[in-house]
Amino acid sequence: MEKKNFTTPVTEFVLLGFTQRPELQPFLCVAFFIVYVNTWLGNVIIITTVISDYHLYTSMYILLANLAFLDISESSVSTPKLLSDLLSQQKTISFNECILQMFFFHFFAGAMGFCLVGMAVDRYVAIYKPLRYLTIMNRGVCMRIVVLAWLAGLAHSAVQIGLLLQLPFCGPNILDNFFCDVPQVIKLACTDTHLAEMQMKFNNGVVIIIIFIILLISYTIILIKIRTNVTEGKHKALSTCGTQITVMCLQFIPSIFIYAWPIKQFALHKVVSVIYSVITPMLNPMVYTLRNAKMKKAIRRLLNRMLFSWRER
Questions:
Q1: Cβ-proximal residues to 117 (8 Å cutoff; 6+ apart), any chain
Q2: 56, 298 Cβ separation under 8 angstroms
Q3: Neighbouring C-beta atoms of residue 97, cutoff 10 Å
């Protein structure tokens, strides 16, 4: 589509925020602040527990700690800006800050997607090769999965931002969102954005769908195996798979609506964005700790050690 001719480069963007109803903003600020605090609290507990408890030095819990760190990182890219804008009349963000926000958001989100693939591989090995699980999924293999997930997220984000920076921004600067994201920013370029939109859909939407399909197939295979070979160990694996499927759906289904949908926004796009950028990072630690007996015991041991240390002072 044609764009109007502008000559002044954009130096900042105006964010319309999550809602433009002033009476709702204080309530939403408190609600999202509670969610953000719980995100930090829950995920920091997981990271601290895995680091401090040698019983959890296996690939499953190392990957879980990595996921918890990515949850904190992804949430911290967008939520602080959401909270500050709910309390402010001036909802602006500089061009450079907007680019950085998009880069880190897609970096952490991409790494999280590939980390979930790694966790599915870990569960697959645990189900199909239980006697060789510790040998196959040793610490070296686990660390390579973590590094590859981060590098894949970095490559995904770098390509995304590289394509975006080729576009000229010299006129419209109003974003109908609570943070900078690629679908809205692309539409503000003062040039034909059809090709850029197609590239965005491929780099985001197609990649998300492919990862989602891979995860669905892998978990279907795992669940079939569990159903035909039910033992005590398999029951534990079934519980773990159930939690990971829940996380996977909460993470990927809203993302598909945002990035694989036509570039035109739909009525609930902000609500959908909140689900995968703010709510899901808080739910991840709840899902894993509530369904994982070993993790709950480790957390209790950690809390008991902390309480005992406090009493000794």
A1: 149, 211, 214, 215, 218
A2: yes
A3: 14
């697959």: which residue's tokens?
124
Structure tokens at 143: 């660390």
Looking at per-residue pLDDT, the higher value among 16 and 307 belongs to 16
- Stated pTM of the model: 0.88
Strands 92-94 and 174-175: unpaired
Distance, CA of 103 to CA of 123 (rounded, Å): 30
Query: How many secondary structure helices (H) and strands (E) does the chain include?
Result: 12, 3
Q: Tell me the average pLDDT of the chain.
A: 84
pLDDT, tens digit (0-9, with 9 covering 90-100), for 153-172: 999 999 989 989 988 888 78
Query: DSSP 3-state assignment of 292?
Result: coil
pLDDT for the residue 39:
95
Closest C-alpha among 180, 172, 163, 18 to residue 94: 180
